[in-house]
# Entry
Amino acid sequence: MRLKEAGVPTDCEAALQAKSNVEIDEFVPILTVFPDYGPAPFLWIVRSLSEGGVGSNLCDGFGWDESFPLSEGLWRKFVDWCDEYEREEFYCDELAAACWDWTVFHTRGLQLSRWLKEEVGDTYRVVYYKPCEDPNHQVDERTEILVNGGVKSLQAFRNSFATRQVAP
# Structure
């Protein structure tokens, strides 16, 4: 994943920087809903503090597996949502990304993320990450879905990266 290769800190590293009293054994794996191009990848996982960015791809459109942390029905809904995104040609002259209805797309993605959080409960943190093709992706770019269905804005990866200290 691009973010991991760039050395971007993980959600958990940022949380540890913000709360110095957090114990490593309190780590909760992070599921990130983030549509990308390819075989409809939509769900990424950070399993440990050593992973960066959104982690590695966990679910895509190739097929559901009972080891996935979501039901087959919810997996199908995510695949349909991601397929719609993948069919658009955001980098084509005939279609400007600004013409895509991003509000509808994100509303659907956040609803799917809420259903995912209902299914996984406290076993995982669930984060919704806007794709960079959205001209306004920097507005509430990363949003954590809470157990009660509420949301919490998270710091953007580039902000976390920019505040990291570089060795002299």
In short: Residues 1-8, 15-23, 159-168 have pLDDT under 50 and may be disordered. The helical segments are 2-5, 11-18, 72-87, 102-120, 157-162. The first strand starts at residue 30 and ends at 33. DSSP finds five helices and six strands in the chain.
